[in-house]
């Protein structure tokens, strides 16, 4: 579905509810919702976002889910949240203070819901939010609460460094380690 520029701009600062439940195997954490996602109310909804294909390609889901099917994720032991809840056109519109505050809110959420793994989708956002400038893609030595931590590349179509096959490889590494 195509949205007008006015519809997209009107979605700025909207918040999409988390898809979360206690005791998930993996809680995926995006940077923040894009405007397309904010209009639809579904995480990673913009056509061209590779989250859903990477999730399926790595074996987390038995079939390719559509963003509108996000509520099925807890049944697979998965959830989605965001570092910063407000929608924006681009993640680079977020301030360092917003990312730091988002890291604190994420820590509280992970402590409350106790997923086995937290997978942050976007290394730059993780580095900023948690003051870890040398963090790399993959497993991290730190934990958040009792959750083990893994950094994945941002699946946005704007991240040209990671095309779908390479994203699937990274998601598969987590899938294997999380023992699905």
From TrEMBL:
<dbReference type="InterPro" id="IPR005122">
    <property type="entry name" value="Uracil-DNA_glycosylase-like"/>
</dbReference>
<keyword id="KW-0234">DNA repair</keyword>
<protein>
    <submittedName>
        <fullName>TDG/mug DNA glycosylase family protein</fullName>
        <ecNumber>3.2.2.-</ecNumber>
    </submittedName>
</protein>
<dbReference type="GO" id="GO:0016798">
    <property type="term" value="F:hydrolase activity, acting on glycosyl bonds"/>
</dbReference>
<keyword id="KW-0326">Glycosidase</keyword>
<dbReference type="InterPro" id="IPR036895">
    <property type="entry name" value="Uracil-DNA_glycosylase-like_sf"/>
</dbReference>
<keyword id="KW-0227">DNA damage</keyword>
<dbReference type="Pfam" id="PF03167">
    <property type="entry name" value="UDG"/>
</dbReference>
<feature type="domain" description="Uracil-DNA glycosylase-like">
    <location>
        <begin position="17"/>
        <end position="180"/>
    </location>
</feature>
<dbReference type="InterPro" id="IPR015637">
    <property type="entry name" value="MUG/TDG"/>
</dbReference>
<keyword id="KW-0378">Hydrolase</keyword>
